[in-house]
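dude i think i finally got it to work??
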Amino acid sequence: MASVTGLEGVIAAETEISLVDGQKGYLVYRGYEAKQLALQASFEEAAYLLWQGKLPTPEVLQIFKKRWSPLRVIPETLKAVVDLLPPQSNMMSVLRTAISAKGAEQHKAWPPSEDDVLAYTAMLPTLITYHYRKSLGLEPVDPHPDLDHVANYLYMLTGAVPQPAHVKVLTAYFVLAMEHGMNASTFAGRVVLSTQSDLASALCASIGAMKGPLHGGAPSEVLDMLDQISSKDRAVSWLTEELASGKRLMGFGHRIYKTNDPRAEALRQIMTELASADPWFELAVHVEKVAVDLLAEYKPGRKLYVNVEFYAAAVMRAISLPPSLFTPSFTVSRMVGWTAHLLEQASCNRIFRPQSVYVGELPTTLS
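look at this
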């Protein structure tokens, strides 16, 4: 039996949640193009779609949104657990610990319910902002009952109602980052849940995988590049110098997508529309255009296109999000995809048990 290192190309499950087609540049959520959802849907609408399999009517959406607000409040017992952690703890470790503690309160381990997944999704921004502000010596900001999920996250980070342009572009990014097939963190969660373990244990596995720099690593190198370019006037000279010296441009090319990354396309469209609202949006769009033209000249035939990390960095820079919160913020979004997969796994469960190929020595009695 031939081995496949890393299980690349191996089908691990059938799913109705999403389609990732890297050759054609498709990302589909439950029959809808993700890039169209990013332009038109709220975070809550996209979450409802992934969990329930259909978009909510306006009346259902209104009721659904009302369920989020009380679930954002974290209990004093959970705050006490977070307060015991060192102030400068890695935020992903904080989330893993807090979710494990939250899971210890639950007595019903199997199967997970939609109420359970909503509770974890709703409280995640509060956990992040609570620990982040306390680590800076600032008073935590309580959730705002009248703001939607994304706007409330920005509000709890700063204590100020966010700009509409920033809410719109972060919502688009979050919708696009919600789900991406059987990636490492999603697979890790499904493996744990397939043993009929509890939801918190599965989510801790997903968070542990996301923490790794090969999966959830923040697009800090793209941010460094944009900071060094700093203005549209410097784009051509800076990018040309990098390519002429044989260096790689961060934020271009993707392991899966061999054509335009549909997530980057959607963010580009929104940033173009909002360019007048934030100079970083305008800079990002300009740098992409210049870079793609130069890449075609310096690396002919490679077909290198911008990826979502490029525009994710521009989004994070525009909303003044510190690099330490890039991966946790990605997790705020991906929690929806993880939990959609966990609900699906529970609905048709079979424990994962792949094989391995032994390449060690055999005892002489067996050789």
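The chain has a mean pLDDT of 89.
im so relieved honestly
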